[in-house]
C-alpha cells in the first residue's frame, strides 16, 4: 500500500509560489499519497496514468500542478478536464477555483448538459483558462465553433472508468483528435479495466503509472456477507435486514437512477428515513441530502455508483449492494464507503440465483470468500418487533404521565364490562396493525433450492479416463437408423404442463421460450421439459411446485412481443407423462423398455418426444440452455 511521505510538505513538491501559498492558506499541511506522487511528474510535463479511489485527494493531485503551469496572461483555454457527470464537473470546477483564488485574471468554466447554452456562450467569450465539462456538451461547443482547443496544454480524464461505462468512449476519442498532438494527458480512474488500459496505450506517451491502494480498498477489515434471494423477494429481505441489523447510517447501491427513487420511496413507505442520491440531482440538492445524512436526519441513502463517488460520511456503518455490480472492482469501491479510518464496517450483498457467477468473480477479485447468510426468518423478525414493543412500553411508563389513561381504561372496563387483559390485547393489536408483531411467513427459498433436481452423478470410470487425458473411441453411428431424441434430464413425474399464449404465428422458437422462462424463473433450462409449439399457443412442461409468485411473474413475461400468460394446460396442472383422456393407450418402447405415450392424431409433434423427422433445433438446445453462467450473461435491470 502506498502511503504519503509525511516528511515533505507542499512547498517541496515544486508548486508555483502562488499555488503553494494558497494551499497553506487553505490549511493543508502534508500531501496525500496520490498528491505527493503525482504532483512532481505533472509539473515536469509527464503523461500520467493514476489509479485511486475518490476521497484520496485526487482532484488536488492534478489541479495544483496544472495550475502551476498555466499562463494567466494568455486568455484562452489551456486545461481541459473531462468528467462523466455534471455533479463531478461542478465539484472539480469549485476545487480549481479555490486553488487559483490568488491567480490574477483567472477564469474557469464548467460546461455540461442540462444548462442553457446562453449562459455558457457568454462565459466562453471571457476566454477562461480552464474548462471542466462532460464529453457531450464539450463536443457540442467544439462543433459550434464556440470552443477551440488550439491552446490546450493539458487534458485530464477524471473518473475515466465511469465515462467508458456510460458510453463516452467514442466522444473521448473525438475530443482527443481535436486537441493538439503536443499536449500533456493525465488519466485518473478508480478501477483499471482493460478498456482504460487501451485508452492509455493509444493516447498517453510514455506515461508514469501510479496506483494508490487506499484503506477503503483493503476489504479485510469489512465484515462481508451475501444472501441468495430471488428478484421478487429482494425488497422483503432488505426491509427485514434493516429491521434486524443495528446500523447507524447505510448506503444502498442500485444500478440505475430510476431505481434509486423507486427503492427510496418503497423504504419510506415502510417507515425508514431514506432518500435517493443520483445524477439527476443538482449540486445543491446533493449537498443538502448528504448533510442530512451526516446530521442524523436521514439514515439511508439509495445511490448509484457515480452519485456515491467522493462520499465520505463517518456515520456510514453499512453498505448494502441491492443490485450486484457487474464489475468486481466496483464492488471494492462500493464497500469502501464504510469501514474507514479504522471504524467497523459491514457489507451485505443480495445475489439473485442467476448472478452466482458474478459473486464468484467478486470473490476472485478480493481473494477471499464472501460468506453466505440466511435471510432473516419470520421468528427472528417477530422477536425483534416484540422486544421493541416492550421497550416502547417501558419507556412510555417511565417518561409519560398516564393518569388520564388509567382513568379512561377503568371507565371502559366498568361501563363495557371488559376485562383489563382484553382491553390491553385489543390496544396492542391496534398498535401493530401496520407492522404485525407476529410475522408468520418466511420468504420461500430461491427456486433452485426449492424445486430443482440435483445434477445426475457422473460415470466414475469415464471421469477417471477424462482426468488421465484418455478418451474412449466413439463408435460409428449407423446413418440408416433413425436418430433417437435425447430424453429429458429429470423424472417426468415431477413436471406439470402449462399453456403459454405464444406460438408459430408469433415466430416463437423453443430457444426463445426456454431462455425467457429460465432467465425469469431462475431455473436451469435442463429442468424444462417438452415444448409443443402450436399455431397460437404452446404447451411447456415445467417443474411441479413452483412458487405462486414465480408463476404469476411468468404470466407477464414477453416472448416475441406476446405476454406468456402462463396457465395450467387443460385447466389444471398434470404430469407431463400423464396421457390425455382422448389419447390412445401408451405404446411400449422396445429400445428403452419404458412405456411411452402415443401422440394423438392431429396433435403436432412435441419437441423431444422422438417421433417423426426432427424439425427445428435439437433437443439439447432446449434442455441444455443455461442461464446462470455469471458475467457472460448480463443481468437484467
TrEMBL record:
Record-linked Pfam families: DbpA, DEAD, DeaD_dimer, Helicase_C
GO BP terms in the entry: cellular response to cold; ribosomal large subunit assembly; RNA catabolic process
Region named Disordered: 437-495, 568-637
UniProt domain DEAD-box RNA helicase Q: residue ranges: 8-36
Compositional bias ranges of the Basic and acidic residues kind: 447-493, 618-631
GO molecular function terms attached to this record: ATP binding; ATP hydrolysis activity; RNA helicase activity; RNA strand annealing activity
Motif (Q motif): 8-36
Record-level GO cellular component terms: cytosol; ribosome
Protein's UniProt keywords contain Transmembrane helix: no
Enzyme Commission code: 3.6.4.13
Main location: cytoplasm
Recorded catalytic activity of this chain's protein: ATP + H2O = ADP + phosphate + H(+)
Gene3D superfamilies, per database record: 3.30.70.330, P-loop containing nucleotide triphosphate hydrolases
Highest taxon, organism lineage: Bacteria
EC class (word): hydrolase
Record CDD domains: DEADc (cd00268), RRM_EcCsdA_like (cd12499), SF2_C_DEAD (cd18787)
InterPro entries referenced in this protein's UniProt entry, alphabetically: CsdA_RRM, DbpA/CsdA_RNA-bd_dom, DEAD/DEAH_box_helicase_dom, DEAD/DEAH_RhlB, DEAD_box_RNA_helicases, DeaD_dimer, DEAD_helicase_DeaD, Helicase_ATP-bd
UniProt keyword annotations, A-Z: ATP-binding, Cytoplasm, Helicase, Hydrolase, Nucleotide-binding, RNA-binding, Stress response
Record-annotated Helicase ATP-binding domain positions: 39-210
Compartments where located: Cytoplasm
Occurrences of domain Helicase C-terminal (ranges): 236-381
Family: Belongs to the DEAD box helicase family. DeaD/CsdA subfamily.
Function of the molecule: DEAD-box RNA helicase involved in various cellular processes at low temperature, including ribosome biogenesis, mRNA degradation and translation initiation.
Protein name: ATP-dependent RNA helicase DeaD
Gene source species: Thiobaca trueperi
Gene symbol of the encoding locus: deaD
Amino acid at each position: 500500500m502506498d502511503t504519503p511521505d509525511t516528511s515533505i510538505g507542499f512547498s517541496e513538491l515544486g508548486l508555483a509560489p502562488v499555488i503553494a501559498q494558497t494551499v497553506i492558506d487553505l490549511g493543508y499541511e502534508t500531501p496525500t499519497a496520490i498528491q505527493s506522487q503525482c504532483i512532481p511528474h505533472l509539473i515536469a510535463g509527464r503523461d500520467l496514468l493514476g489509479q485511486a479511489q475518490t476521497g484520496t485527494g485526487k482532484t488536488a493531485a492534478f489541479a495544483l500542478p496544472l495550475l502551476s503551469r498555466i499562463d494567466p496572461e494568455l486568455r484562452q483555454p489551456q486545461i481541459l478536464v473531462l468528467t462523466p457527470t455534471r455533479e463531478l464537473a461542478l465539484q472539480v470546477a469549485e476545487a480549481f477555483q479555490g486553488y487559483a483564488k490568488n491567480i490574477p485574471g483567472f477564469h474557469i468554466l464548467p460546461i455540461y448538459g442540462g444548462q442553457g447554452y446562453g449562459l455558457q456562450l457568454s462565459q466562453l467569450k471571457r476566454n477562461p483558462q480552464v474548462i471542466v465539462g462532460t464529453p457531450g456538451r464539450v463536443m457540442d461547443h467544439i462543433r459550434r465553433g464556440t470552443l477551440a482547443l488550439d491552446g490546450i496544454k493539458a487534458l485530464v480524464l477524471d473518473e475515466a472508468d465511469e465515462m467508458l461505462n456510460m458510453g463516452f468512449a467514442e466522444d473521448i476519442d473525438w475530443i482527443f483528435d481535436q486537441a493538439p498532438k503536443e499536449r500533456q494527458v493525465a488519466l485518473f480512474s478508480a478501477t483499471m479495466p482493460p478498456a482504460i488500459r487501451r485508452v492509455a496505450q493509444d493516447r498517453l506517451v510514455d506515461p508514469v503509472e501510479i496506483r494508490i491502494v487506499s484503506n477503503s480498498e483493503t476489504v479485510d477489515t469489512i465484515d462481508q456477507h451475501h444472501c441468495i434471494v430471488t428478484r421478487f423477494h429482494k425488497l422483503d429481505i432488505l426491509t427485514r435486514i434493516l429491521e434486524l441489523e443495528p446500523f447507524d447510517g447505510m448506503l444502498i447501491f442500485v444500478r440505475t437512477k430510476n431505481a434509486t427513487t423507486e427503492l427510496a420511496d418503497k423504504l419510506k413507505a415502510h417507515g425508514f428515513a431514506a432518500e435517493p442520491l443520483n445524477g439527476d440531482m443538482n449540486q445543491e440538492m446533493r449537498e443538502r441530502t448528504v448533510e442530512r445524512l451526516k446530521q442524523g436526519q436521514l439514515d439511508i441513502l439509495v445511490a448509484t455508483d457515480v452519485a456515491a463517488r467522493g462520499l465520505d460520511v463517518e456515520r456510514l456503518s453499512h453498505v448494502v449492494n441491492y443490485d450486484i455490480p457487474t464489475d468486481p472492482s466496483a464492488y471494492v469501491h462500493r464497500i469502501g464507503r464504510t469501514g474507514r479510518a479504522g471504524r467497523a464496517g459491514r457489507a451485505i450483498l443480495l445475489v439473485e440465483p442467476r448472478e452466482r457467477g458474478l459473486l464468484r468473480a467478486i470473490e476472485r477479485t478480493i481473494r477471499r470468500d464472501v460468506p453466505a447468510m440466511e435471510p432473516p426468518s419470520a421468528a427472528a423478525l417477530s422477536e425483534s418487533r416484540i422486544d421493541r414493543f416492550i421497550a416502547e412500553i417501558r419507556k412510555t411508563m417511565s417518561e409519560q404521565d398516564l393518569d388520564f389513561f388509567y382513568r379512561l381504561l377503568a371507565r371502559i372496563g366498568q361501563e363495557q364490562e371488559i376485562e383489563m387483559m382484553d382491553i390491553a390485547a385489543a390496544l396492542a393489536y391496534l398498535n401493530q396493525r401496520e407492522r404485525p408483531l407476529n410475522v408468520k411467513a418466511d420468504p420461500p427459498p430461491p427456486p433452485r433450492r426449492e424445486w430443482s433436481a440435483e445434477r445426475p452423478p457422473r460415470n466414475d470410470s469415464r471421469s477417471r479416463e477424462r482426468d488421465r487425458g484418455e478418451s474412449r473411441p466413439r463408435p460409428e453411428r449407423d446413418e440408416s437408423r433413425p436418430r433417437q431424441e435425447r430424453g429429458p434430464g429429470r423424472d417426468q413425474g415431477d413436471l406439470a404442463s402449462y399453456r403459454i399464449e405464444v406460438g408459430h404465428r408469433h415466430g416463437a422458437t423453443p430457444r426463445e421460450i426456454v431462455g425467457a422462462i429460465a432467465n425469469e424463473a431462475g431455473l436451469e433450462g435442463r429442468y424444462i421439459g417438452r415444448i409443443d409449439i402450436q399455431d397460437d399457443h404452446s404447451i411447456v412442461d415445467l417443474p411441479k411446485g413452483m412458487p405462486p409468485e414465480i408463476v404469476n411473474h411468468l404470466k407477464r413475461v414477453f416472448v416475441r412481443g406476446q405476454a406468456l400468460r402462463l396457465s395450467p394446460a387443460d385447466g389444471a396442472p398434470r404430469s407431463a407423462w400423464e396421457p390425455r383422456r382422448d389419447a390412445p393407450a401408451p405404446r411400449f418402447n422396445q429400445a428403452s423398455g419404458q412405456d411411452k405415450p402415443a401422440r394423438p392424431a392431429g396433435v403436432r409433434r412435441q419437441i423431444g418426444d422422438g417421433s417423426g423427422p426432427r424439425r427445428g433445433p435439437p433437443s439439447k438446445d432446449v434442455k441444455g440452455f443455461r442461464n446462470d453462467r455469471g458475467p457472460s450473461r448480463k443481468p437484467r435491470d
